[in-house]
Amino acid sequence: MRERLGRQPALGLAGLLLVVPVALLLAIGAGGPEASLLVLGPLVTFALPVVAVIGFCWDDWPGSRLRPGWSGLADTAVVAAAAVPLTLVGLLAVGRLDPAGIFDPTPGAGHPATFPATMPLAGAAFVAVLQVTLVSEGLPLDRLGRRTAGVAALAIAWACAVAVELLVVARDAPDGSGLRDRTGLLSGADVGALLVAVGVWQVVLFVALEGRPFARIARRPARLLAANATVIGGGCLTCLVLRDVAGWRPGTISAAAGAVIAAALLVAMLFEGWPAPGRLSMLAAVAAVAAVLFAGLAAFAGSVAWSQAEAEDWVAYAGLNAIGASVILHVAIGRRWPFR
Hints:
Structural class: mainly alpha
Order of helices and strands: HHHHHHHEEHHHHH
Shape: globular
Largest sheet: 2 strands, parallel
Strand order of the largest sheet: 1-2
Radius of gyration: 19 Å
Oligomer: single chain
Number of strands: 2
Protein backbone atom coordinates (compact mmCIF):
# COMPACT_ATOMS: atom_id res chain seq x y z
CA MET A 1 0.00 0.00 0.00
CA ARG A 2 2.73 2.48 0.98
CA GLU A 3 4.64 1.63 -2.19
CA ARG A 4 1.56 2.29 -4.36
CA LEU A 5 0.88 5.58 -2.58
CA GLY A 6 4.46 6.57 -3.34
CA ARG A 7 3.72 6.07 -7.04
CA GLN A 8 0.70 8.37 -7.00
CA PRO A 9 -0.48 10.37 -8.84
CA ALA A 10 1.38 8.69 -11.73
CA LEU A 11 -0.33 5.35 -11.07
CA GLY A 12 -3.78 6.92 -11.10
CA LEU A 13 -3.06 9.00 -14.19
CA ALA A 14 -1.84 5.89 -15.99
CA GLY A 15 -5.02 4.09 -14.97
CA LEU A 16 -7.05 6.82 -16.64
CA LEU A 17 -5.64 5.58 -19.95
CA LEU A 18 -7.86 2.51 -19.47
CA VAL A 19 -10.67 3.95 -17.37
CA VAL A 20 -11.52 6.82 -19.71
CA PRO A 21 -11.87 4.76 -22.93
CA VAL A 22 -14.02 2.14 -21.17
CA ALA A 23 -16.18 4.85 -19.61
CA LEU A 24 -16.62 6.55 -22.98
CA LEU A 25 -17.52 3.24 -24.60
CA LEU A 26 -20.23 2.64 -21.99
CA ALA A 27 -21.48 6.24 -22.01
CA ILE A 28 -21.72 6.91 -25.74
CA GLY A 29 -20.48 3.81 -27.54
CA ALA A 30 -23.83 2.26 -28.48
CA GLY A 31 -24.81 4.84 -31.07
CA GLY A 32 -24.62 8.01 -28.99
CA PRO A 33 -25.56 9.10 -25.45
CA GLU A 34 -29.29 8.36 -25.64
CA ALA A 35 -28.98 4.99 -27.35
CA SER A 36 -26.23 3.99 -24.91
CA LEU A 37 -28.42 4.96 -21.96
CA LEU A 38 -31.43 3.04 -23.29
CA VAL A 39 -29.52 -0.13 -24.21
CA LEU A 40 -26.38 -0.27 -22.07
CA GLY A 41 -27.90 1.44 -19.02
CA PRO A 42 -29.96 -1.57 -17.88
CA LEU A 43 -27.32 -4.09 -18.97
CA VAL A 44 -24.53 -2.38 -17.03
CA THR A 45 -26.72 -1.79 -13.98
CA PHE A 46 -27.74 -5.46 -13.81
CA ALA A 47 -24.06 -6.39 -14.13
CA LEU A 48 -22.98 -4.13 -11.25
CA PRO A 49 -23.87 -6.64 -8.48
CA VAL A 50 -21.60 -9.19 -10.16
CA VAL A 51 -18.85 -6.55 -10.44
CA ALA A 52 -19.21 -5.78 -6.72
CA VAL A 53 -19.08 -9.44 -5.70
CA ILE A 54 -15.98 -10.19 -7.82
CA GLY A 55 -14.20 -7.03 -6.67
CA PHE A 56 -15.23 -6.82 -3.01
CA CYS A 57 -16.11 -10.40 -2.01
CA TRP A 58 -14.38 -12.90 -4.30
CA ASP A 59 -11.07 -11.00 -4.38
CA ASP A 60 -10.84 -11.16 -8.19
CA TRP A 61 -11.89 -14.82 -8.48
CA PRO A 62 -12.32 -16.53 -10.96
CA GLY A 63 -9.79 -14.39 -12.82
CA SER A 64 -7.31 -14.72 -9.97
CA ARG A 65 -6.52 -18.22 -11.23
CA LEU A 66 -4.92 -16.69 -14.34
CA ARG A 67 -1.83 -14.57 -14.79
CA PRO A 68 -2.08 -10.76 -14.68
CA GLY A 69 -3.68 -9.31 -17.79
CA TRP A 70 -5.76 -12.39 -18.51
CA SER A 71 -7.21 -12.17 -15.00
CA GLY A 72 -9.00 -8.87 -15.57
CA LEU A 73 -10.13 -9.89 -19.04
CA ALA A 74 -11.58 -13.15 -17.75
CA ASP A 75 -13.50 -11.42 -14.96
CA THR A 76 -14.77 -8.78 -17.37
CA ALA A 77 -15.98 -11.55 -19.66
CA VAL A 78 -17.83 -13.14 -16.72
CA VAL A 79 -19.49 -9.79 -15.95
CA ALA A 80 -20.48 -9.25 -19.59
CA ALA A 81 -21.84 -12.79 -19.87
CA ALA A 82 -23.94 -12.32 -16.74
CA ALA A 83 -25.41 -9.00 -17.87
CA VAL A 84 -27.73 -10.38 -20.56
CA PRO A 85 -29.45 -13.20 -18.60
CA LEU A 86 -29.81 -10.97 -15.53
CA THR A 87 -31.42 -8.26 -17.67
CA LEU A 88 -33.77 -10.86 -19.13
CA VAL A 89 -34.78 -11.94 -15.63
CA GLY A 90 -35.29 -8.29 -14.72
CA LEU A 91 -37.46 -7.75 -17.78
CA LEU A 92 -39.54 -10.78 -16.81
CA ALA A 93 -39.99 -9.32 -13.31
CA VAL A 94 -41.41 -6.03 -14.59
CA GLY A 95 -43.29 -7.31 -17.63
CA ARG A 96 -42.96 -10.18 -20.02
CA LEU A 97 -39.91 -11.88 -21.45
CA ASP A 98 -39.10 -10.27 -24.80
CA PRO A 99 -35.43 -10.11 -25.84
CA ALA A 100 -36.25 -7.51 -28.50
CA GLY A 101 -36.27 -4.79 -25.85
CA ILE A 102 -32.76 -5.51 -24.59
CA PHE A 103 -30.60 -4.48 -27.54
CA ASP A 104 -32.97 -2.16 -29.41
CA PRO A 105 -33.45 1.38 -28.02
CA THR A 106 -36.76 1.61 -29.88
CA PRO A 107 -38.22 -1.93 -29.77
CA GLY A 108 -41.61 -0.79 -31.05
CA ALA A 109 -45.19 -1.32 -29.93
CA GLY A 110 -45.84 -4.49 -27.98
CA HIS A 111 -42.17 -4.99 -27.04
CA PRO A 112 -41.29 -3.95 -23.46
CA ALA A 113 -38.24 -1.69 -23.20
CA THR A 114 -35.76 -2.28 -20.39
CA PHE A 115 -35.24 1.44 -19.77
CA PRO A 116 -36.48 2.89 -17.49
CA ALA A 117 -38.79 0.11 -16.24
CA THR A 118 -36.07 -2.26 -15.02
CA MET A 119 -33.74 0.37 -13.52
CA PRO A 120 -35.23 0.41 -9.97
CA LEU A 121 -34.94 -3.38 -9.82
CA ALA A 122 -31.34 -3.37 -11.06
CA GLY A 123 -30.36 -0.49 -8.80
CA ALA A 124 -31.91 -2.15 -5.76
CA ALA A 125 -29.89 -5.32 -6.41
CA PHE A 126 -26.64 -3.33 -6.57
CA VAL A 127 -27.36 -1.33 -3.43
CA ALA A 128 -28.33 -4.52 -1.58
CA VAL A 129 -25.06 -6.23 -2.57
CA LEU A 130 -23.03 -3.28 -1.26
CA GLN A 131 -25.07 -3.30 1.94
CA VAL A 132 -24.30 -6.97 2.50
CA THR A 133 -20.64 -7.01 1.44
CA LEU A 134 -19.38 -3.60 2.59
CA VAL A 135 -21.70 -2.14 5.23
CA SER A 136 -22.56 -5.44 6.96
CA GLU A 137 -19.03 -6.83 6.52
CA GLY A 138 -20.45 -9.97 4.90
CA LEU A 139 -22.10 -11.12 8.15
CA PRO A 140 -23.36 -13.81 8.54
CA LEU A 141 -22.41 -15.03 5.06
CA ASP A 142 -18.69 -14.94 5.87
CA ARG A 143 -19.11 -18.29 7.60
CA LEU A 144 -19.96 -19.96 4.29
CA GLY A 145 -16.61 -19.42 2.62
CA ARG A 146 -15.77 -16.62 0.23
CA ARG A 147 -17.22 -18.07 -3.00
CA THR A 148 -20.40 -19.43 -1.44
CA ALA A 149 -20.86 -16.16 0.41
CA GLY A 150 -20.66 -14.25 -2.86
CA VAL A 151 -23.37 -16.40 -4.43
CA ALA A 152 -25.51 -16.00 -1.32
CA ALA A 153 -25.00 -12.23 -1.39
CA LEU A 154 -26.24 -12.11 -4.98
CA ALA A 155 -29.28 -14.21 -4.07
CA ILE A 156 -30.12 -11.97 -1.10
CA ALA A 157 -29.64 -8.87 -3.23
CA TRP A 158 -32.03 -10.15 -5.88
CA ALA A 159 -34.60 -11.10 -3.25
CA CYS A 160 -34.43 -7.56 -1.86
CA ALA A 161 -34.66 -6.09 -5.36
CA VAL A 162 -37.75 -8.14 -6.23
CA ALA A 163 -39.33 -7.07 -2.94
CA VAL A 164 -38.70 -3.42 -3.85
CA GLU A 165 -40.23 -3.97 -7.28
CA LEU A 166 -43.33 -5.69 -5.92
CA LEU A 167 -43.96 -3.60 -2.80
CA VAL A 168 -42.49 -0.14 -3.39
CA VAL A 169 -42.45 0.73 -7.10
CA ALA A 170 -45.60 2.28 -8.55
CA ARG A 171 -46.05 2.02 -12.32
CA ASP A 172 -48.88 2.97 -14.63
CA ALA A 173 -47.87 0.97 -17.69
CA PRO A 174 -49.21 2.20 -21.06
CA ASP A 175 -51.39 -0.19 -23.01
CA GLY A 176 -49.37 -2.44 -25.28
CA SER A 177 -46.08 -1.71 -23.50
CA GLY A 178 -45.66 -5.29 -22.27
CA LEU A 179 -45.08 -3.99 -18.72
CA ARG A 180 -47.07 -4.68 -15.57
CA ASP A 181 -48.90 -2.04 -13.57
CA ARG A 182 -47.70 -1.66 -9.99
CA THR A 183 -49.57 -0.15 -7.08
CA GLY A 184 -46.65 0.91 -4.94
CA LEU A 185 -45.49 3.70 -2.67
CA LEU A 186 -43.11 5.60 -4.95
CA SER A 187 -42.61 6.16 -8.65
CA GLY A 188 -39.70 4.48 -10.38
CA ALA A 189 -37.84 7.80 -10.56
CA ASP A 190 -38.28 8.40 -6.82
CA VAL A 191 -37.09 4.86 -6.03
CA GLY A 192 -34.06 5.38 -8.24
CA ALA A 193 -33.16 8.66 -6.55
CA LEU A 194 -33.51 7.06 -3.11
CA LEU A 195 -31.31 4.12 -4.08
CA VAL A 196 -28.55 6.29 -5.52
CA ALA A 197 -28.64 8.49 -2.40
CA VAL A 198 -28.11 5.40 -0.25
CA GLY A 199 -25.30 4.42 -2.62
CA VAL A 200 -23.56 7.74 -1.90
CA TRP A 201 -23.46 6.96 1.81
CA GLN A 202 -22.25 3.42 1.12
CA VAL A 203 -19.38 4.45 -1.13
CA VAL A 204 -18.30 7.56 0.77
CA LEU A 205 -18.30 5.88 4.18
CA PHE A 206 -17.04 2.41 3.25
CA VAL A 207 -14.82 3.05 0.23
CA ALA A 208 -13.56 6.61 0.61
CA LEU A 209 -13.43 6.62 4.44
CA GLU A 210 -12.82 2.84 4.78
CA GLY A 211 -15.59 2.32 7.33
CA ARG A 212 -14.75 5.19 9.62
CA PRO A 213 -16.02 6.23 12.14
CA PHE A 214 -17.74 2.86 12.71
CA ALA A 215 -14.39 1.07 12.93
CA ARG A 216 -13.98 2.56 16.40
CA ILE A 217 -16.96 0.53 17.69
CA ALA A 218 -15.36 -2.62 19.06
CA ARG A 219 -18.48 -4.79 19.44
CA ARG A 220 -19.45 -6.12 16.04
CA PRO A 221 -23.25 -6.23 16.51
CA ALA A 222 -23.30 -2.61 17.67
CA ARG A 223 -20.97 -1.59 14.86
CA LEU A 224 -23.08 -3.22 12.17
CA LEU A 225 -26.32 -1.84 13.60
CA ALA A 226 -24.90 1.67 13.66
CA ALA A 227 -23.45 1.35 10.16
CA ASN A 228 -26.64 0.02 8.56
CA ALA A 229 -28.86 2.55 10.32
CA THR A 230 -26.60 5.42 9.32
CA VAL A 231 -26.32 4.42 5.67
CA ILE A 232 -30.00 3.68 5.10
CA GLY A 233 -31.24 6.53 7.27
CA GLY A 234 -28.73 8.97 5.82
CA GLY A 235 -29.66 8.05 2.27
CA CYS A 236 -33.38 8.43 2.92
CA LEU A 237 -32.91 11.73 4.73
CA THR A 238 -30.66 13.08 1.97
CA CYS A 239 -33.22 12.22 -0.69
CA LEU A 240 -36.10 13.73 1.31
CA VAL A 241 -34.24 16.97 2.02
CA LEU A 242 -33.15 17.43 -1.59
CA ARG A 243 -36.62 16.63 -2.92
CA ASP A 244 -38.93 18.27 -0.40
CA VAL A 245 -36.77 21.12 0.95
CA ALA A 246 -34.43 22.00 -1.91
CA GLY A 247 -37.07 21.18 -4.53
CA TRP A 248 -34.83 18.96 -6.65
CA ARG A 249 -36.41 16.57 -9.13
CA PRO A 250 -35.67 12.85 -8.72
CA GLY A 251 -33.56 12.92 -11.89
CA THR A 252 -31.44 15.77 -10.53
CA ILE A 253 -30.88 13.89 -7.26
CA SER A 254 -29.80 10.77 -9.14
CA ALA A 255 -27.48 12.77 -11.42
CA ALA A 256 -25.78 14.60 -8.55
CA ALA A 257 -25.50 11.43 -6.45
CA GLY A 258 -24.04 9.53 -9.40
CA ALA A 259 -21.35 12.19 -9.77
CA VAL A 260 -20.50 11.90 -6.05
CA ILE A 261 -20.18 8.10 -6.28
CA ALA A 262 -17.97 8.36 -9.37
CA ALA A 263 -15.81 10.97 -7.64
CA ALA A 264 -15.44 8.86 -4.50
CA LEU A 265 -14.32 5.85 -6.53
CA LEU A 266 -11.86 7.94 -8.56
CA VAL A 267 -10.31 9.60 -5.50
CA ALA A 268 -10.34 6.65 -3.11
CA MET A 269 -9.64 3.75 -5.49
CA LEU A 270 -7.90 5.01 -8.62
CA PHE A 271 -5.74 7.59 -6.80
CA GLU A 272 -5.92 5.83 -3.41
CA GLY A 273 -6.62 9.01 -1.50
CA TRP A 274 -3.82 11.07 -3.04
CA PRO A 275 -3.28 13.85 -2.03
CA ALA A 276 -5.93 13.63 0.73
CA PRO A 277 -4.60 11.52 3.64
CA GLY A 278 -7.15 12.75 6.22
CA ARG A 279 -10.90 12.30 6.40
CA LEU A 280 -11.77 15.96 5.92
CA SER A 281 -9.34 16.38 3.04
CA MET A 282 -10.67 13.18 1.47
CA LEU A 283 -14.26 14.47 1.67
CA ALA A 284 -13.15 17.83 0.25
CA ALA A 285 -11.40 16.11 -2.65
CA VAL A 286 -14.46 13.96 -3.38
CA ALA A 287 -16.72 17.03 -3.30
CA ALA A 288 -14.45 18.97 -5.65
CA VAL A 289 -14.15 16.13 -8.17
CA ALA A 290 -17.91 15.50 -7.97
CA ALA A 291 -18.64 19.16 -8.75
CA VAL A 292 -16.36 19.07 -11.78
CA LEU A 293 -17.83 15.79 -13.02
CA PHE A 294 -21.41 16.93 -12.56
CA ALA A 295 -20.80 20.26 -14.31
CA GLY A 296 -18.97 18.63 -17.23
CA LEU A 297 -21.43 15.79 -17.74
CA ALA A 298 -24.43 18.11 -17.40
CA ALA A 299 -22.96 20.55 -19.91
CA PHE A 300 -22.41 17.78 -22.43
CA ALA A 301 -25.86 16.27 -21.85
CA GLY A 302 -27.41 19.70 -22.26
CA SER A 303 -25.98 19.93 -25.77
CA VAL A 304 -27.67 16.69 -26.87
CA ALA A 305 -31.19 16.42 -28.27
CA TRP A 306 -33.16 13.92 -26.17
CA SER A 307 -36.37 12.22 -27.31
CA GLN A 308 -36.91 9.11 -25.16
CA ALA A 309 -34.92 9.99 -22.04
CA GLU A 310 -33.78 13.10 -20.21
CA ALA A 311 -30.34 14.64 -19.87
CA GLU A 312 -30.29 13.99 -16.10
CA ASP A 313 -30.84 10.27 -16.69
CA TRP A 314 -27.69 10.12 -18.80
CA VAL A 315 -25.66 12.17 -16.30
CA ALA A 316 -26.59 9.70 -13.54
CA TYR A 317 -25.73 6.73 -15.80
CA ALA A 318 -22.45 8.24 -16.98
CA GLY A 319 -21.28 8.94 -13.44
CA LEU A 320 -22.42 5.89 -11.54
CA ASN A 321 -22.32 3.21 -14.23
CA ALA A 322 -19.84 4.28 -16.90
CA ILE A 323 -17.18 5.92 -14.74
CA GLY A 324 -17.85 4.01 -11.51
CA ALA A 325 -17.89 0.57 -13.12
CA SER A 326 -14.76 1.38 -15.15
CA VAL A 327 -12.81 2.29 -12.00
CA ILE A 328 -13.89 -0.87 -10.17
CA LEU A 329 -13.05 -3.03 -13.20
CA HIS A 330 -9.57 -1.52 -13.47
CA VAL A 331 -8.59 -1.34 -9.79
CA ALA A 332 -10.50 -4.03 -7.89
CA ILE A 333 -10.84 -6.59 -10.68
CA GLY A 334 -8.08 -5.84 -13.19
CA ARG A 335 -5.59 -5.14 -10.35
CA ARG A 336 -4.38 -2.06 -12.24
CA TRP A 337 -2.97 -4.16 -15.06
CA PRO A 338 -0.72 -3.31 -16.91
CA PHE A 339 0.43 -0.61 -14.47
CA ARG A 340 1.00 -2.88 -11.45
